[in-house]
Amino acid sequence: MKTLMFGWEFPPHILGGLGTACYGLLKGLAQQGDIENTFVLPKPWGDEDQSFLKIIGASYVPIVWKDNNYDYVYQRLQGKMSPEEYYHYRDNIRYDFRRIGTDDLGCVNFSGRYPDNLLEEISNYEAVAGVLAHSLAFDIIHSHDWLTYSAGVFAKQISGKPLVVHVHATDFDRSRGNVNPIVYDIEKRGMDNADHIVCVSNLTRQTVIEKYFQHPDKVSTVHNAVEPLKDVETYVKHDHKTKVVTFLGRITMQKGPEFFVEVASQVLSKTRDVHFVMAGSGDMMEKMIKMVAQRGIADHFHFTGFLKGRQVQEMLADSDVYMMPSVSEPFGISPLEAMQIGTPSIISKQSGCAEILTHAIKTDYWDIDAMADAVYAIVKYPAMYKSLRELGMQEVNNIRWYDAGLKLRKIYDSLIRY
What we know:
Blueprint: E1 2-6, H1 17-30, E2 36-41, E3 54-57, H2 70-77, H3 83-90, H4 118-135, E4 140-144, H5 149-159, E5 163-167, H6 171-175, H7 181-193, E6 196-199, H8 202-211, E7 219-221, E8 243-248, H9 257-268, E9 274-279, H10 285-295, E10 301-305, H11 310-317, E11 321-324, H12 334-340, E12 345-348, E13 361-363, H13 368-380, H14 382-396, H15 401-415
Parallel strand pairs: 1-2, 1-4, 2-3, 4-5, 5-6, 6-7, 8-9, 8-11, 9-10, 11-12, 12-13
Helix pairs in contact: 1-15, 4-5, 5-7, 9-10, 9-13, 12-14, 13-14
């Protein structure tokens, strides 16, 4: 079986949980055997792990014919793609994309991020999908999140192959219900054209059925998992005079950062032996800094900025409590990463991971009192901390990407007509 997957980010260059989930799912799929995964990425950086998949950089796929000789193509691509592969794609350009700005190779220069002209990049990515659909042999198309749905639909129209769209989040989650109609239309069109829809939680599945009017039989839940840490013993908790409580993620309204600040204020009114850390970046950062100052807790509160790679695990390992007060979290991998490393977690009931975690404390995101009581109990009662730490590690170690990959493979098999 051959898959053609469209994604937007991939480790180690990630800006959120989407890339981490794609990595785990692809690895879980590869473990099923007899499957070849091709993963299309707007702009690879060259240091991605390709031991279990092939990555194609959309930035190196020509969409406009350019007459370049072999040596020039070889020099320009510098190992990012072979000239033979480049020419193969060039020979399969079937549409006039000259309206799109391209470089001297006829390729689009994608940012590899989420720029201000994101909708333009999504449209250009769709053009690349058209070239690839004419160039490659595959059995199924799999599009991850709304950014790639249009690409998946175009590839399906060209090839006639089944399309799976993977809903990692909806605009109802990202906007707290203040939905962008353009984004909604892209999501709805992708779901309408999909042969099957995969959601990361039952919470998201219900949103897809009720808000996007999809038939329940067409929508399945495949919960995310966590990649095992081979060097978990190298992450240590340093001795602190105070306990550390951490929020780690995008500082946006979806993640509920203001509730974390309110919890900090309430806990610090009872004890000063706790330090709160907000790790990440986002459009609510400045508002949170002002809120911390207004509450008079700046001396017990720290903003780290965006963390990546090993920094994330080091921060989680050095924490006594991890908090995820998300208002609407389709899944939320970070609590699993925290528990895997031995850090007790408090998560909102409005998160997908709450459906599969038993040994995490669950509260409503708006229940400041309950969250504050939970933080206080964990930092003040060693027996509670020890129990959550040990049971949490055992639980998360049994949540595997292999199982997610197995479920995906069964969905593929149900769609493919051999």
